[in-house]
Specification:
Strand order of the largest sheet: 3-30-29-28
Number of strands: 30
CATH topology of the largest domain: Methylamine Dehydrogenase, Chain H
Helix content: under 10%
CATH superfamily of the largest domain: YVTN repeat-like/Quinoprotein amine dehydrogenase
Number of helices: 3
Strand content: 35-45%
Distance between the termini: 44 Å
CATH architecture of the largest domain: 7 Propeller
């Protein structure tokens, strides 16, 4: 008896008697199976574009000095020019859509004992992606071939957040039982702290000097910690409900927090006082994110809005409406100052450019990028790829469109 195999488009012989090799498989079948196991996986390798960028950097510098656009580096509308695609940092003037708005799904992964992916982070250098799930487990993925590398138990409760120190020597994680852990770059546990009255800790952020960090949780408190002694220095009280998000200013002693009381507060961690309160949202503030320029603060809420504030004047610059459900995640592009990505409760992924004309409209939108809420998203340090983790138990890698 023979049947058609779509894999090799040739008849495949089944031996009903069980002879002809292991498990009744012929020598050709065994050879084909071995070839499929050794099949080269598709990957997204940024070394080629990085080399191209190094070759062109002197030309780029000359163009910048004469205030002209480096037109020779722009891609032509033909697939043969893909080899000339540079890194996102190659864009001196306005961001190029093909380099900043990552609309091509390069890969989708799911661990064997899959549970919702609550948070994720690229390892130092961007070689691997680390995800934390609802069972309190780490999963490590290769950032180039997207292959599975490691899964290990990390917390006794669901992950809530993770953050690398700026010197990349330690990783901080928190869970739903009020536990904070220090980890080495090799993902070895270093220290454990119980805090926030055993309430879920939703956010972690580290000071620019790496000597302090801040946490927030469902006990309505924002807590400042000393990094070396692992001790709590100060409790910032002022929110009337669960604090869902927190972010330390990239260069100054200012902390932003967002709460279920609909408020965004700015704090001085040295004095323990509230500097200002922003009343822009009408529902729970789910995320806050500082721009690397130190002047802009992004806030997202269950009212489906994203707001951009200039903290120098405490002024709202723009209110962005593109999500049809609550906004659950935010991340600024690591290289392009005006570009950021947002994820929604309905699985929608949106890219924004707040520096362009008509910035109130999405620059690119992927409806149903996930089947359920996008709990976290993180840009690769080189800016050419975005990773998203979702309640649908999947981790997806997004790359520049081809």
């Amino acid at each position: 008896m023979s049947h058609y195999s779509p894999n090799n488009a040739r008849p495949k012989v089944s031996n009903a008697g069980g002879g002809g090799g292991a498990g009744g498989m012929s020598a050709d079948d065994l050879e084909q199976e071995a070839a499929e196991r050794n099949l080269i996986r598709r990957c997204v390798d940024y070394h080629g574009p990085a080399i191209l960028d190094l070759q062109n950097r002197l030309y780029r510098k000359a163009c910048r000095s004469h205030h002209t656009r480096h037109s020779a580096l722009y891609l032509q509308p033909h697939s043969s020019y893909m080899r000339l695609m540079g890194m996102p940092l190659a864009s001196v003037a306005a961001p190029i859509p093909s380099e900043c708005y990552l609309t091509y799904m390069a890969h989708v992964t799911r661990a064997k004992n899959s549970t919702p992916v609550m948070c994720l982070s690229w390892t130092p250098g961007g070689r691997r992606l680390l995800t934390g799930n609802q069972e309190g487990e780490f999963t490590l993925w290769d950032g180039i071939t997207f292959s599975f590398e490691l899964i290990m138990s990390a917390h006794d409760a669901s992950f809530r957040s993770m953050a690398w120190s700026h010197n990349r020597n330690y990783l901080l994680t928190s869970d739903a039982s009020g536990n904070i852990k220090y980890w080495s770059p090799s993902i070895a546990p270093v220290q454990s702290i119980d805090s926030h009255n055993k309430q879920p800790i939703h956010g972690l952020s580290i000071s620019p000097s790496d000597t302090k960090f801040v946490s927030c949780g469902d006990d309505a408190a924002v807590r400042v910690w000393d990094w070396a002694s692992h001790s709590e220095e100060r409790t910032l009280e002022g929110h009337g409900w669960d604090v869902k998000t927190v972010a330390w200013h990239p260069r100054s002693s200012v902390i932003a927090s967002g709460s279920k009381d609909n408020l965004v507060k700015l704090w001085d961690p040295r004095a323990g006082s509230c500097l200002s309160t922003l009343y822009g949202h009408k529902n729970t503030v789910t995320k806050v994110a500082w721009n690397d320029n130190g002047n802009w603060l992004l806030t997202a809420s269950r009212d489906q809005l994203i707001k951009l504030y200039d903290i120098r004047a405490m002024k709202e610059l723009v209110s962005l409406k593109g999500h049809h459900k609550e906004v659950t995640s935010l991340a600024w592009h690591p290289l392009q100052e005006t570009v950021f990505a947002s994820g929604g409760m309905d699985g929608t992924l949106i890219y924004w450019n707040v520096g362009a004309k008509g910035s109130e409209e999405p620059a690119a939108k992927i409806p149903y990028a996930h089947d359920m809420a996008i709990w976290d998203l993180q840009w690769h340090p080189a800016g050419h790829m975005l990773a998203t983790g979702s309640n649908d138990r999947q981790t997806k890698f997004w790359a520049r469109n081809r």
